[in-house]
């Protein structure tokens, strides 16, 4: 028995499996997410920055995450780690710097702490000290790329790559000059002092940097001197004062100029050495050159004469004091001040070149000529009365015969009359003596006596009574003159009465004065004389009206 077996499966199509190169749609979303994450990761790594290490001697105040790197005025990175350097004495500070700063990171790049040592002359350092330390950087130019640096102990005075020329100065005294001091030319800041150090000859060597294009001004005739912010001058009989370069009060300063008479157009080569003078007058006087030693002996007070004080000749500085000591004779007790000083032949008009023996011979001969012409050494104060002691070579009138005394070194004679300070003291004493000789007490007593006599004269009852009568008479005259009907008779009578009263007043005053002797005011007799003249005039008027009564109506007629 057969049944219905359904359709024949042999005729059905057979399915075939095919492999695709693409993942199924189900993997599309995870794949896209992976690509996005990978992109963000790569971007994050590229923006993470560059890690560098800066080694500082002291990193006090630096903190991770808070201390920022200031790159060309903007934040260019931050501190990520602080650890002790393997040498055990320094500190390694790790910074992450923005990638854009990479071209400026090389062996010439400089790092320093801003605000670690606040300076009133640098406002940014004071601000950083208040708000928190930061790290400053000066991008390097021309160096080899590196990731390890040694930080500076102080900010650089001149940033690497600044255009200009370095030079050097020498000085025995610095005054207020220090690293960072400004250099001025006719009021314009043209450079900075970059370093100050003491060399093996106990002379200060000062490294300076003159900015371009001002470095072209530096030539063989250039003069440098220590700037003084206070300028005091006397002109036209008036004293004036002003402050130049107020900033130099804190940082010090140096002035530069050129000796125009020998100025050249050729710029001096870099690192050339120039002398640094104490002031402009010394700079204009020219180089001191090698000095020739001499001794001085003073009888007067000279203990305040300091080492380095000038020796002046006709107002020019021609030498300087090297030592001062007191010499006391144990047998006689005589005391003198012995001073050793160097004179500069070049500033005395002698050729500074030559060996020591030649300079000594030429300078000794010149000093002998000056002594023969009456020049002697004497102490003085500059400025007078308030300044420090200096030695002047002054011409003394009728000077006693003298010569250059033999010794080691030779001794230049001084004046017998002491110092110019003694002369000023003597003049002051003479003036005080003249003032003291004025009889001020006697003059005061005379004035008091005259005042008393004048008071008694004014308060005298006789004079008061006479004045009252005179006032009454004048009132009556005024009444008569204002009446409508002129009455000649009474008027003349009144005028004569007035004349008599005035005469009486004058006579009474004269009688009082005669009793006072010579102690009267000079103006009182003149007043009495005027009263007498007034009485005479009134009496003349009365006589005229008595003879010409019509004059009250017609006026005085013309004289025939």
Verbal overview:
This protein has helices spanning 28-47, 123-131, 248-251, 280-285, 356-372, 420-437, 440-458, 461-482, 488-516, 523-547, 551-554; strands at residues 50-56, 68-71, 74-84, 91-97, 110-114, 134-138, 148-150, 164-171, 182-185, 188-198, 204-211, 222-226, 230-235, 238-243, 253-258, 273-277, 292-298, 310-313, 316-328, 335-343, 375-382, 388-395, 411-412. By secondary structure, the chain is an alpha/beta fold. The protein folds into four domains: 47-150, no CATH class; 164-285, no CATH class; 292-430, no CATH class; 441-554. The chain has a seven-stranded mixed β-sheet with strand order 5-6-2-3-4-1-7. It has a seven-stranded mixed β-barrel with strand order 8-11-10-9-15-12-16.
């Amino acid at each position: 028995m057969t049944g219905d077996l359904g359709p024949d499966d042999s005729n059905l199509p057979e399915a075939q499996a095919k492999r695709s190169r693409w993942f199924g749609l189900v993997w599309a979303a995870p794949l896209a997410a992976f690509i996005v994450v990978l992109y963000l990761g790569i971007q994050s790594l590229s923006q993470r920055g560059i890690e560098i290490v800066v080694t500082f001697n002291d990193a006090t105040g630096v903190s991770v995450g808070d201390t920022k790197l200031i790159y060309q005025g903007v934040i260019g990175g931050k501190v990520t780690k602080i650890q002790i350097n393997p040498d055990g004495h320094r500190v390694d500070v790790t910074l992450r710097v923005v990638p854009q700063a990479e071209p400026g990171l090389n062996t010439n790049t400089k790092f320093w702490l801003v605000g670690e040592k606040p300076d009133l002359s640098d406002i940014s350092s004071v601000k950083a000290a208040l708000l928190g330390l930061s790290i400053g950087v000066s991008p390097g130019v021309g160096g080899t790329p590196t990731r390890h640096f040694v930080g500076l102990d102080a900010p650089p005075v001149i940033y690497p790559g600044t255009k200009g020329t370095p030079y050097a100065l020498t000085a025995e005294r610095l005054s207020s000059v220090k690293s960072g001091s400004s250099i001025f030319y006719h009021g314009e800041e043209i450079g900075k002092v970059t370093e100050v150090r003491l060399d093996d000859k106990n002379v200060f060597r000062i490294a300076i940097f003159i900015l371009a294009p001002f470095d072209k001004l530096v030539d063989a005739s250039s003069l440098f001197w220590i700037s003084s912010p206070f300028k005091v001058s006397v002109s036209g009989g008036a004293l004036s004062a002003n402050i130049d370069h107020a900033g130099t009060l804190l940082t010090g300063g140096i002035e530069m100029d050129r000796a125009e008479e020998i100025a050249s157009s050729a710029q001096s080569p870099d690192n050339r050495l120039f002398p640094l003078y104490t002031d402009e007058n010394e700079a204009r006087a020219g180089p001191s050159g090698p000095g020739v030693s001499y001794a001085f002996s003073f009888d007067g007070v000279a203990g305040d004469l300091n080492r380095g004080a000038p020796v002046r000749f006709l107002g020019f500085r021609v030498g300087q004091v090297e030592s001062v000591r007191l010499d006391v004779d144990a047998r006689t007790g005589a005391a003198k001040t012995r001073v050793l000083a160097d004179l500069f032949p070049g500033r005395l008009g002698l050729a500074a070149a030559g060996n020591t023996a030649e300079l000594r011979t030429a300078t000794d001969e010149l000093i002998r000529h000056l002594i023969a012409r009456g020049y002697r050494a004497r102490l003085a104060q500059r400025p007078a009365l308030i300044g420090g002691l200096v030695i002047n070579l002054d011409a003394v009138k009728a000077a006693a015969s003298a010569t250059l005394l033999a010794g080691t070194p030779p001794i230049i004679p001084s004046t017998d009359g002491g110092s110019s300070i003694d002369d000023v003291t003597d003049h002051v004493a003479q003036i005080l003596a003249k003032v003291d000789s004025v009889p001020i007490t006697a003059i005061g007593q005379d004035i008091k006596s005259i005042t008393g006599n004048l008071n008694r004269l004014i308060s005298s009852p006789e004079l008061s009574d006479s004045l009252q009568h005179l006032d009454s008479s004048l009132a009556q005259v005024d009444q008569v003159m204002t009446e409508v009907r002129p009455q000649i008779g009474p008027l003349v009578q009144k005028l004569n009465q007035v004349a008599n009263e005035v005469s009486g007043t004058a006579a009474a005053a004269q009688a009082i004065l005669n009793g006072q002797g010579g102690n009267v005011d000079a103006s009182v007799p003149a007043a009495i004389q005027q009263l007498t003249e007034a009485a005479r005039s009134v009496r003349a008027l009365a006589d005229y009206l008595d003879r010409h009564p019509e004059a009250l109506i017609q006026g005085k007629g013309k004289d025939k």
